[in-house]
Amino acid sequence: MRLLIVEDEKRLALSLARGLTAEGFAVDVVHDGLEGLHRAGEGAYDLVVLDIMLPGMNGYRVCAALRAAGHDVPILMLTAKDGEYDEAEGLDTGADDYLTKPFSYVVLVARVKALLRRRGTGGGSSVRTLGPLRVDTGARRVLRGEIEVPLTAKEFAVLEQLVVRAGEVVSKAEILEHVWDFAYDGDPNIVEVYVSTLRKKLGAELIRTVRGAGYRLEAPR
Questions:
Q1: Rounded Cα–Cα distance for residues 57 and 44 (Å)
Q2: How far apart are CA 87 and CA 104, in angstroms?
Q3: In this predicted structure, what is the pLDDT of residue 91?
Q4: What is the pLDDT of residues 65-77, one digit of tens each?
């Protein structure tokens, strides 16, 4: 697995690179947003660790440019900022996960491995159909009618938890446990951000909120 770290704090970038290399990854490091966009756009990486506050081009713009160009590489965003607005903005640009500095290295490795594991899940097509919606958990594709709906890795992971239990109520805690893993210690309301994004992309009627209990996936009309 080859990773790209785009981080202008050189000591932090080198520390992360050494640690991830020791975990068995091949790691490249750049310190500028424009260079990060160029390198990531070559398509040679399995995951990008992307800081937000970068010279040349900030992480939001790098992420948005990659998604606009059709690159679906998982992106883990790093930032010294904090707050729901910043996290929502990062997710809106197409990031798959978000980690606020300072963070535990153990947590970062867990997030990286979780994103890579979800990207590699498959080994056979398993298509689930709900009305005009088709979700292929093997190929990691979602189609509404004949139109494919692009989802980030984390968006797909949330949808997958709902689709395998279609018609049942899935709690926010269950989604956090399966999608964010044990290492997540942030705001549990992050689930609501992803559910809102899925509703925008797939249809507001698809995911029903069951007050006080969780969410239920229903066949769209």
A1: 21
A2: 18
A3: 62
A4: 999 998 889 999 9
Query: What sign results for the dihedral spanned by CA atoms 61, 54, 85, 108?
Result: positive
Residue ranges of the chain with per-residue pLDDT less than 70: 81-91, 120-126, 138, 180-186, 220-221
CA atoms lying within 13 Å on the CB side of residue 21: 10
CA dist 74 and 163 (Å) reads 21
This prediction has a pTM of 0.59
Residue 187 has phi, psi (to 5 degrees) of -70, 120
pLDDT at 56: 93
Retrieve residue 183's tokens.
């290492």
Q: Which residues are CB-contacts of 73 (< 8 A; sequence separation ≥ 6)?
A: 40, 43, 45, 46, 47, 48, 66
Number of Cβ atoms within 10 Å of the Cβ of 176: 18
Closest CA to 59 of 87, 83, 84: 87
Q: Which positions ≥6 away from 92 have C-beta within 8 Å?
A: 197
Under DSSP, the state recorded for 13 is H
Q: What is the model's pLDDT at position 189?
A: 83
CA distance 21 to 191: 31
